[in-house]
Design goal:
- The structure holds 2 protein chains of 2 kinds.
- Chain A is built from 7 helices and 10 strands.
- Chain A has a single domain, classed as 3-Layer(aba) Sandwich (Rossmann fold).
- The model of chain A has no long low-confidence stretch (mean pLDDT about 95).
- In chain A, helix 3 packs across helix 4, helix 4 crosses helix 5 and helix 5 packs parallel to helix 6.
- By secondary structure, chain A is α/β, with parallel strands linked by helices.
- Chain B has 2 domains: about 80 residues, Winged helix-like DNA-binding domain superfamily/Winged helix DNA-binding domain (Arc Repressor Mutant, subunit A); about 80 residues.
- A 3-stranded antiparallel sheet of chain B has the order 1-3-2.
- In chain B, strand 2 and strand 3 form a beta hairpin.
- The radius of gyration of chain B is 19 Å and the shape is elongated.
- Classes of the chains: A alpha/beta, B mainly alpha.
- At the A-B interface, helix 6, helix 7 and strand 9 of A face helix 6 and helix 7 of B.
- Bound molecules: adenosine-5'-triphosphate and magnesium ion.
- The site of magnesium ion has 4 residues of chain A, from helix 1.
Chain lengths: ~230, ~180
C-alpha cells in the first residue's frame, strides 16, 4: 500500500470497564475512501473519533502525514482538525441556536474568512446537498435527514484533506442517501481528499474502496494487540 | 430434478455422514430438519444423490441392515468425501443470483460439525461486498433511470444476503457453545 495519509496503530481505549478499542488498527491512503463496518458497539465511532484526533487513545498511535497526533498539544490538534479535517458525527451535532447556513459558516468563520464570502460558500454547499430549502431553519425545525445533509455541508465547506463521516446517511432513504454519497464522492475525487466512513448500510460501504470490519474493538482478521 | 440442487444437497448429506453412518431415510429426515427454510428433499433425490456420491467415491456402503423389514443400505463418508466436504465448507461462493441457499447449507453444515463458520462468513462477505462495489459503480455510471432501477433490484437482493451473513456471524459470536 502507498504510504498512508493517516495511520491508527494498535489503539486501546476503555471507558471505565468497557474496552471500546482493544488493539484496533486502520490506515487510509491518500485519495482513498475507507469504510469502517461491524456490529453495534464494536468500536467504530470510537475508532473514528481517535483517528480524527477528537478522542485520545490510552495506548497505540495515530499518525497523520508522519506527525503523531497524540504528541500535539490540545491547541495544535484543534487547529489541525479545523484546517485539514471535515467531521460528520453520528448524531449530526449541529449548533441548535444557529440556522443551517450559520452552522455551515462556522468552520469558515473560525478560520477568519470574510463573513459574506462564507455565507455565499455555505449556501452553495447546502444547495449541492439538496438542503437549500432549510438554509434558514434551526436544527430543531429540521428532519433527521435534513440535519444530516447540513452536517455534510459543514464538513465539506472548508475543502478538507480528510473527511470523517459517522453514519452520514443513517437517517436518509436510499435515493437521498445516494445523493449525499454522490456529493461526498465527487467532491473528494475532485480534491484528492480521503474519507473514513462508518456505516451499517452495505450499499454505502460499497462506495468505499476498502473496508475494515471491527468486532469487539479489533479489526477482523488481525490479532488483538496487547497494550 | 435440477442437477445443481442435487450437487449442493450432496455436500449437506456428506456433512451429515461426517457425524456417523446413516441410511437414506435418516439422511432425508436430518437434511430437512437442518434446513427448515428450504424445500424438503424427495426420497428419489436422496437415492439419486447417494448413487452419484458413491460413483464418485465420496461415500461407501457401510453395511446392509435387515431387521425384519426390507433391506436398508447404511452409507458412510469416505476419506475422499471428507476432503471434498472440507473444501466445500471453506470455499466462498461467487455472489451470483443463486448463491443464497448454498450459503445457508455451508454455514449450517459447518456448525453441526462444530466448526467455526466465521472465516467462511467473513470471506463470503468480502466477495459479496466486492460484487456490490461493482454494481454501485455501474449504477453511478448509468445514465438512464431504467438501468438504475434494474440495478437496484440486484443490489437489494445482494444486500439481503449481506445482512444474513452479518446476522449469522453475530449469532455465532453470541452462541460460543456451538463451537465447543
Ligand atoms: N463516551 C462513552 N462513555 C462510555 N462508554 C462509551 C462511550 N463511547 C462509547 N462507549 C462504549 O464503547 C463501546 C463502543 O462504542 P462505539 O460507539 O464506538 O460503537 P459503534 O461501533 O460506533 O456502535 P454503533 O454501531 O451502535 O454506533 C460500546 O460498548 C459503548 O457503550
Ligand atoms: Mg457508532
Amino acid at each position: 500500500m502507498m504510504e498512508p495519509l493517516l495511520r491508527a496503530h494498535a489503539l486501546h481505549l476503555a471507558f471505565g470497564r468497557t474496552e471500546a478499542l482493544r488493539g484496533a488498527s486502520a490506515e487510509v491512503a491518500p485519495g482513498e475512501v475507507l469504510a469502517l463496518t461491524g456490529p453495534s458497539g464494536s468500536g467504530k465511532s470510537t475508532l473514528l473519533l481517535c483517528m480524527a484526533g477528537v478522542l485520545r487513545p490510552q495506548a497505540g498511535s495515530v499518525t497523520y502525514e508522519g506527525r503523531r497526533l497524540d504528541d500535539l498539544s490540545e491547541d495544535d490538534r484543534t487547529r489541525l482538525r479545523r484546517r485539514e479535517f471535515g467531521l460528520v458525527l453520528q448524531f449530526g451535532q449541529l449548533v441548535p441556536e444557529l440556522s443551517a447556513v450559520q452552522n455551515v459558516m462556522v468552520p469558515l468563520l473560525l478560520e477568519r474568512h470574510d463573513r459574506q464570502a462564507a455565507r455565499t460558500s455555505a449556501l452553495g454547499w447546502l444547495d449541492r446537498l439538496g438542503a437549500a430549502d432549510v438554509a434558514d431553519a434551526q436544527p430543531g425545525e429540521m428532519s433527521g435527514g435534513e440535519a444530516q445533509r447540513v452536517a455534510m455541508a459543514r464538513a465539506l465547506v472548508t475543502g478538507p484533506g480528510l473527511v470523517f463521516a459517522d453514519e452520514p446517511t443513517g437517517a436518509l432513504d436510499t435515493v437521498s442517501g445516494e445523493q449525499v454519497m454522490e456529493v461526498l464522492l465527487s467532491t473528494v475525487r475532485e480534491t484528492g481528499a480521503s474519507v473514513v466512513l462508518v456505516t451499517h448500510d452495505n450499499r454505502v460501504a460499497a462506495y468505499a474502496d476498502r473496508e475494515v470490519v471491527l468486532r469487539d474493538g479489533v479489526a477482523e482478521g488481525r490479532p488483538a494487540v496487547l497494550p | 430434478m435440477c442437477i445443481v440442487a442435487d450437487m449442493s444437497s450432496g455436500h449437506v448429506l456428506l456433512g451429515i455422514l461426517a457425524a456417523g453412518p446413516a441410511h437414506g431415510y435418516d439422511l432425508k429426515r436430518e437434511h430437512d430438519a437442518r434446513l427448515p427454510g428450504a424445500k424438503p428433499l424427495a426420497y428419489g433425490q436422496v437415492y439419486a444423490t447417494l448413487a452419484r456420491l458413491q460413483r464418485d467415491g465420496l461415500v461407501e456402503v457401510a453395511t446392509t441392515e435387515n431387521d425384519g423389514g426390507p433391506e436398508r443400505t447404511v452409507y458412510d463418508i469416505s476419506p475422499a468425501g471428507e476432503e471434498s466436504l472440507l473444501e466445500w465448507l471453506a470455499t466462498p461462493e461467487p455472489p451470483g443470483p443463486y448463491a443464497a441457499e448454498e450459503l445457508v447449507r455451508k454455514t449450517v453444515t459447518a456448525l453441526r460439525l462444530h466448526r467455526d463458520a466465521r472465516p467462511f462468513l467473513g470471506a463470503q462477505r468480502a466477495l459479496h461486498l466486492d460484487r456490490m462495489r461493482g454494481l454501485v459503480a455501474e449504477q453511478r455510471a448509468a445514465v438512464d433511470v431504467d438501468a438504475r432501477i434494474a440495478l437496484d433490484h440486484t443490489i437489494f437482493h445482494l444486500d439481503a444476503d449481506l445482512r444474513w451473513l452479518e446476522a449469522a456471524a453475530a449469532r455465532v459470536n453470541e452462541e460460543g457453545t456451538l463451537l465447543r
